[in-house]
Amino acid sequence: MFDGIGFMELLIIAVLALIVLGPERLPTAVRSISRTLGSIKRMASSVKSELESELKLEQLHSDLKKAENKGLKDLSPDLQNSLDELKSAAQSVNRPYQESSDTPASASPAPAGSASVSDTPAASDAKAESTGDAKSKES
Q: What is the Cα–Cα distance from 133 to 59, expressed in whole angstroms?
């Protein structure tokens, strides 16, 4: 970060900051500067990752267009890898929706040898109490 600044320059800056700000305000100034630099770094990292993902998406899009133009035959290895990556991404996106529509959560059987929640003694007691409460409220 400080490639062009040597140790002596940093020492001079620190001494000047101590003289100008004083020992009481210097720690708060250093904290606020470090927070600002941290937020700038996080923002730059975020922008960089977004740009990389957009460039990758654009590259995949152009590879898909090339593959369509070639008729999905005799593709170069790069185009074939991009096409395979797109297919796997599409399958991973569709997979959760297919699983939820194929097997409803209420229809899934309990594993063999395990007791269901309604078979446990605590559930039976709670069920008895709830029916007893309902009967007492009716009368």
A: 66
Q: What is the pLDDT of residues 73-114, one digit of tens each?
A: 677 787 778 778 877 877 877 776 666 666 555 444 444 444
List alpha helices for the chain, DSSP H. 7-69, 77-102, 121-138
d(CA 75, CA 91): 21
112 phi-psi bin (left φ>0, alpha ψ -120 to 50, beta other): beta
CB 83 within 8 A of CB 75: yes
- The encoded tokens of residue 124 equal 């039976």
For 7, 16, 17, the CA distances from 27, given in Å and listed in that order, are 20, 14, 10
Does the pLDDT at position 19 exceed 90? yes
